[in-house]
Amino acid sequence: MLGFAGGLLILSGCFVYGMTYSIRLKKRIEILRDMINVFDRMKGFMGYSMLEMEDIFIRLDTYEYSVAVNGFIKSILIELKKSDIETFEQIWTSAVKKCFTGILKSSEISVIAQTGRISDYLDKENQIKLIESAGYELKEILSTVKEGAPDKMKAYIITGLSVGLILVITLI
Known about the structure:
This protein is an all-alpha fold. The chain has one domain. The protein has 7 helices and no strands. The longest helix is centred in the N-terminal third of the chain and has 47 residues. The termini are close together.
């Protein structure tokens, strides 16, 4: 009886491990999709109104995104309200690392992080072009990630179950 319970525990653990990878991939897709929406909205706010960055992030904070993207927006908004000497790029990069490390790949993080250089450009047109460029890159990454996502998610779960079964059979 104890062996059966141990085997069930091992099988459950491996299944949860496979599910964890599956959920992580789903979160990654949600974050990429939400960041594309954030960039589109930023571009709209910058293109059609003369809003300061703090006002843009106040407006972005009213929309519903995934937990990580909401945390990213709130983190930037909190730092912008402080009267520190930090530049926008430092605030942006810090928020990107804090909210997306461990979920997104380093190439995806670098695309999002490069958008923090928006304050390097004085004219609005180049700022909008930088945001458009990052949005376009994220759209390409998202389409690549979504391409095989359902199959990968199933494979993670099946692999977890298979490893669990192999361990149970080996240990029994």
